[in-house]
């Protein structure tokens, strides 16, 4: 909790910093950004970023610091490229990826706050008075751009409207506005290799051409980066063009968003629609705060979307995800490996539950220190879920799930299984004890499951589930089936 508030404070600071650097726009979000206005004012062409240098300046320093502050002593993650991210049920164990989304549903006042709330404002939970105050302050100061200087050799503000412009200019800019970018087929909107302290703002509608390929549609890497969606912006993946009911099989589908080797950074207020397959993949990253994201794949419920994981995390540390709203068709969250991970204030609908796992059978098989709190899981196959791979080795330790609300769960309210199979996702029915699940707290899981579901399902290996705390869990409905296998004493199914 302490850590959580800490990150919220940082987040608020981040939002303010974004505002400070991107003064309020008149309110609408189509077309003319504050940066463009500033560019116009200074007589520059912001669209291709040329000539902006030194004329629009911001406080990069404070921003960099936020980035640093965010990091909770994690050392940079292993260099992986996400191959370990997740195993998709029925899939081939590929990495997941994530889409992200915006702010509306997560309720930060989505632009209606009218006044100065600009783009950046939407950043997640900065809201209300803080936001507008800040916006005002900066609004007037926006032009007072001449006091700070952009880093040597950097152009401070760039507005891009094509992926090619991004590729060509991204490392020269410390503020990047992505204005209604149409990314061509088989291209990645590549935001890796940014300068430290760079702020990226998605504005308007971001779309992608169609091709069968693996993606990612968007890649972000670097250090001290802030990625935000402007109020009213949408990143529309057009996933229905790929959906064929086969997920990882069938047509090759691009993953949505790779946050790989990203450190001390923030991703906020993105409004994502219709990812072809997995949405956000977080791998080899540390000190990353993600908030105010909406992933709306609800169309996929009837149009054949599958394996559309919300957030897949592998080999990463100090990852905080909060205020997210996900409607998808696979795990809302899946942690394959990593340390010091928090997931809170989330709504997960339509998917397979909030999961740790599957763990085992990858390069990194350690999950240590996870807090999952204040999550509502509805219309999903499972609620709380931990899955470890039969026959594999690994550790899951120091995990707390608390204040979890369940509604209309079709299979298991709480499921902890040590008989998972990578690839098929099927249980073997023969749990093994090579992956330990130790110091697990499940507290305050409430609500109900559907009539043919099982409220609590535990299948542990012999001696591999130890030191569990279990309190305040009341899952109504469903059927009692079997019993707990090898569960720690006092826990009943
Ligand atoms: C954007 O706003 C500026 C100043 O408000 C104006 O000069 C410019 O023409 C506008 N650009 C567009 C594309 O509307
Ligand atoms: C329950 O969830 C399923 C999806 O698992 C959905 O199809 C159904 O409409 C939901 N029922 C209600 C009453 O929301
Ligand atoms: C058990 O895990 C919790 C986090 O869920 C942690 O705060 C606590 O220190 C751990 N206890 C031990 C003995 O490691």
From TrEMBL:
One of its GO terms (molecular function) is polygalacturonase activity. The keyword tRNA processing does not apply. Gene3D superfamilies: Single-stranded right-handed beta-helix, Pectin lyase-like. Residues 52-61 have a biased composition (Basic residues). Residues 71-101, 115-137, 145-155 have a biased composition (Low complexity). Residues 1-20 form the signal peptide. Residues 47-155 are annotated as: Disordered. GO terms for cellular component: extracellular region. Keywords: Cell wall biogenesis/degradation, Disulfide bond, Glycosidase, Hydrolase, Repeat, Signal. Its EC number is 3.2.1.15. It comes from the Eukaryota. PROSITE patterns: POLYGALACTURONASE (PS00502). The active site is at residue 352. One of its GO terms (biological process) is cell wall organization. Belongs to the glycosyl hydrolase 28 family. This is endo-polygalacturonase. The lineage of its organism: Eukaryota, Fungi, Dikarya, Basidiomycota, Ustilaginomycotina.
């Amino acid at each position: 909790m302490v850590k959580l508030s800490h990150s919220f404070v940082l987040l608020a600071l981040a939002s303010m910093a974004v505002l400070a650097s991107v003064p309020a726009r008149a309110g609408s979000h189509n077309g003319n950004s504050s940066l463009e206005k500033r560019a116009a004012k200074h007589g520059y062409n912001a669209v291709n970023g040329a000539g902006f240098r030194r004329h629009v300046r911001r406080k990069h320093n404070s921003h960099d610091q936020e980035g640093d502050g965010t990091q909770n002593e994690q050392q940079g993650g292993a260099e992986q490229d996400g191959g370990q991210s997740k195993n998709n049920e029925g899939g081939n164990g590929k990495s997941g990826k994530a889409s992200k989304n915006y702010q509306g549903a997560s309720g930060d006042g989505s632009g209606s706050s009218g006044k100065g709330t600009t783009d950046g404002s939407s950043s997640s939970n900065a809201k209300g008075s803080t936001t507008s105050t800040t916006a005002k302050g900066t609004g007037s100061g926006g032009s007072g751009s001449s006091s700070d200087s952009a880093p040597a050799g950097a152009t401070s503000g760039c507005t891009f409207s094509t992926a090619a412009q991004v590729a060509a200019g991204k490392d020269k800019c410390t503020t990047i506005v992505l204005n209604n970018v149409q990314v061509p087929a088989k291209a990645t909107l590549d935001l890796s290799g940014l300068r430290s302290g760079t702020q990226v703002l998605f504005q308007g509608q971001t779309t992608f051409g169609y091709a069968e390929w693996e993606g990612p549609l968007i890649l972000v890497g670097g250090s001290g980066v802030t990625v935000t969606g402007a109020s009213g912006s949408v990143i529309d993946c057009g996933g229905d063009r790929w959906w064929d009911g086969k997920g990882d099989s069938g047509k090759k589908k691009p993953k949505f968003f790779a946050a790989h080797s990203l450190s001390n950074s923030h991703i906020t207020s993105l409004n994502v629609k219709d990812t072809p397959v997995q949405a956000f993949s977080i791998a080899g990253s540390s000190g990353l705060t993600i908030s105010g994201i909406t992933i709306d794949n609800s169309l996929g419920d009837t149009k054949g979307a599958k394996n559309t994981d919300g957030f897949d995390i592998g080999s990463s540390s100090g990852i905080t995800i909060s205020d997210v709203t996900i409607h998808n068709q696979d795990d809302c969250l899946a942690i394959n490996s990593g340390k010091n991970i928090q997931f809170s204030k989330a709504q997960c609908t339509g998917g397979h539950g909030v999961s740790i796992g599957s763990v085992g059978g990858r390069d990194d098989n350690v999950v240590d220190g996870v807090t999952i709190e204040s999550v509502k899981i509805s219309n999903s196959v499972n609620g709380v879920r931990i899955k470890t791979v039969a026959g594999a080795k690994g550790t899951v330790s120091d995990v707390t799930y608390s204040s979890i609300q369940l509604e209309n769960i079709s299979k298991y309210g709480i499921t902890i299984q040590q008989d998972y199979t990578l690839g098929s996702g099927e249980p073997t029915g023969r749990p093994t004890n090579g992956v330990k699940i130790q110091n697990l707290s499940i507290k305050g899981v409430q609500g109900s499951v559907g009539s043919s579901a099982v409220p609590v399902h535990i299948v542990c290996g012999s001696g591999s589930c130890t030191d569990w705390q279990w309190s305040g869990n009341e899952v109504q409905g469903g059927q009692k089936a079997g019993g707990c296998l090898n569960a720690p004493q006092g826990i009943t199914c």
